[in-house]
Amino acid sequence: MKKYIYLMRHGETLFNRRRKIQGWCDAPLTDFGKYQASCARDYFKHQGITFKKAYSSTSERACDTLEIVTEGALSYQRLKGLKEWNFGTFEGESEDLNPPLPYKDFFVTYGGESQDQIVARMVATVGQLVSESEEDTILIVSHGGAIANFARAYQEHWETELPKGLGNCAILKFRYEDDIFYLEEVIRHDFSDWKEN
């Protein structure tokens, strides 16, 4: 059975705005982040896309984003396997301390995860929940690094290019067929109507 998975990054957080490394540590959505999530909600409405099944990282920023997108009308499952890359003792520090990409196993020395570990975790988690779901349209709210690394695991099956840097509330649309995830579309929203209070 062919399935469609919408893998979405959370909205902007206080740490995003302050350029803090944010993996397993958490920060609340900003007002702009909440607006971004409402734009994603409107996108799904305008496209006539409805969900009966949704999943989120256990991080509050992802859960809050999902609840805005679904208007709190859909029960969902929170999964630790969908969390962001664990950056160890770099958590909460300035993004200026990040090493050059790709990070590979840099953070392992500091109590974090390697790139291979986050890829394996995301592939296993997303693969299991999609293969076991009876629904053909699924929403998953996760994190920029986690989503990008999941997508790269299926790079040979991309039908569109993955942009450098996945913006807040960007959505990757995958087609799941014969145990393979095909990246069909990258959805980025127009936030130009935002007015700060």
TrEMBL record:
<feature type="active site" description="Tele-phosphohistidine intermediate">
    <location>
        <position position="10"/>
    </location>
</feature>
<dbReference type="Pfam" id="PF00300">
    <property type="entry name" value="His_Phos_1"/>
</dbReference>
<feature type="binding site">
    <location>
        <begin position="9"/>
        <end position="16"/>
    </location>
    <ligand>
        <name>substrate</name>
    </ligand>
</feature>
<feature type="active site" description="Proton donor/acceptor">
    <location>
        <position position="84"/>
    </location>
</feature>
<dbReference type="InterPro" id="IPR029033">
    <property type="entry name" value="His_PPase_superfam"/>
</dbReference>
<dbReference type="GO" id="GO:0016791">
    <property type="term" value="F:phosphatase activity"/>
</dbReference>
<dbReference type="InterPro" id="IPR001345">
    <property type="entry name" value="PG/BPGM_mutase_AS"/>
</dbReference>
<feature type="binding site">
    <location>
        <position position="61"/>
    </location>
    <ligand>
        <name>substrate</name>
    </ligand>
</feature>
<dbReference type="GO" id="GO:0005737">
    <property type="term" value="C:cytoplasm"/>
</dbReference>
<dbReference type="InterPro" id="IPR013078">
    <property type="entry name" value="His_Pase_superF_clade-1"/>
</dbReference>
<protein>
    <submittedName>
        <fullName>Phosphoglycerate mutase</fullName>
    </submittedName>
</protein>
<dbReference type="InterPro" id="IPR050275">
    <property type="entry name" value="PGM_Phosphatase"/>
</dbReference>
